[in-house]
Amino acid sequence: MAKIDVLFNELMARKGSDLHLEQGQRPKMRLQGSLKEMKRVDPLTGPFLQELLSEISGPERWHRFNMTGDLDFAYILGNDARFRANYYRHFYGYGAVFRLIPSSILPLSSIDMSEVLREFGNLRSGLVLITGPTGSGKSTTLAALIDHINANQQRKIITIEEPVEFVHENKKGIVAHREVGVDTASFASGLKSAIKSDADIILVGEMRDKETIALALDAAQMGILVFGTLHTNSATKSVDRIVDVFSANEKSQVRTILVNTLQGVVSQQLLKSVDGSRRWVAYEIMMRTPAIAAIIAEGDTTKLISEIQVNHPKGMILMEERLLELVNAGKIRLEDAFMKASDKRFFTAKSA
C-alpha cells in the first residue's frame, strides 16, 4: 500500500472527484465542485510530497517529470479505483492533481445528456467534438458513447489518450487503447498509426496542436469517425479554435474541410445542484445541416447561434437555453447559471 493511498481512500469515502496536493499547503479535495481542505493533515513539506509522488510514479516517470516539470499518467489503486494523475512544478515547489476515474462506465441513458448523442454514435464518418473546460465531464460522456457503440456495433475503435482513463472491454466491437508517453510518443504519432490500422472510429483525447488537429481532419476526410475534445465552451468557439490554429493562407481550406466533415459539437459544463448533493450537466449541441455548413464556409460563426436556436426541435440547443431549463426545473441556482452563461444579455432577458 502506497502512503498516498490513505488520502485516496478518504477522497472516495467522501465521494470527492479530485485530490489536490501542493507543497506548503494541506491537501484539498473537490467535493461537488467545491474545494475543501483536509484539516487533519499537516501542510505538505517538499521532501514528504516528493516521497508521496515518486513512490507511485516509479523511477522512470519521476525522472521524466524532473526533466520536464510536467507528468500525466494513470494510477491504479488495487481493484478499487483508477486515478488520472497530473504532476507539475510551481513557484513554491511540487504540485499534483488526481482525478478519480469511476470504476464503471455509465450508460448513455444515465448521464443526463441529450438523446442526440446516440445519433452521433451511429455516424459512419466525420468529426464530432466534445468540448468544455477541465472537469466538465467530457471523458464520462465519451466513455458512455464509446461503450454504446462497442455494445451495439461491430467496429474497430482506437482511443489515444494521456493517460488512458476508462478501459473498455471488447464487446461487439474491438477497442484498442493507446496511451501517449507509453504506447505512442504523441497524439499526432498515435493518430498517424491509427489511420493506417483499419480503424472505424478514433477517439483523440485532446486536440491540442496544429499537427493533431490536421491529422484528425485528414482521418475524418478518409471516412473514419473521429471523436475529439477541445477546451472550448461553445460550438462557435470550437469552430473558431479549429480554424484559428492554422495560418491565414490555410484557413479557407480548413473551413472547406470542416464543411465536409464536421458532424456535430457538444459543449458541456457541470453545475452544483441547489441542495449541493450532486452536479448537473449543462450542454450545448450543434448538428450538421446545410445552413450550418454554409455558415462555416462563410466564416461568420456568430450566425451559428441563431441557427442552433432555429433547429431546437431537431435536438439542437444553446448552452444558455439548457441552463434556463435546469433553473426552471429547480435543479440549479439562478445565480450559478448566470455565471456560467456566455451571453449574459440573453440569459437576463429570458429569465426576467
* Strand portion: 25-35%
Q: Which architecture of the largest domain per CATH?
A: 3-Layer(aba) Sandwich
The CATH fourth-level homologous superfamily of the largest domain: P-loop containing nucleotide triphosphate hydrolases
> What is the share of helical residues?
25-40%
Spans of at least 5 consecutive residues with low confidence: none
Radius of gyration: 21 Å
Give me the number of helical elements. 13
Short description:
This protein is an alpha/beta fold. The chain is built from 13 helices and 13 strands. A seven-stranded mixed beta sheet has the order 9-8-10-11-7-12-13, with helices on both faces.
Walkthrough of the structure:
The structure is a single chain. The chain is of the alpha/beta class and 352 residues long. It folds into two domains: 5-101, Beta-Lactamase (2-Layer Sandwich), CATH 3.30.450; 108-351, 3-Layer(aba) Sandwich (Rossmann fold). The chain has 13 helices and 13 strands. The protein has helices spanning 5-13, 46-68, 116-121, 138-152, 187-195, 210-221, 235-244, 251-261, 290-298, 303-310, 319-328, 334-340, 344-351; strands spanning 18-22, 28-31, 34-37, 70-77, 81-90, 93-101, 126-131, 156-161, 174-179, 201-204, 225-230, 262-272, 279-287. A seven-stranded mixed beta sheet has the order 9-8-10-11-7-12-13, sandwiched between helices. Helix 8 (251-261) packs antiparallel against helix 9 (290-298). It is globular and about 60 Å long. The N and C termini lie far apart (55 Å). The mean pLDDT is 94.
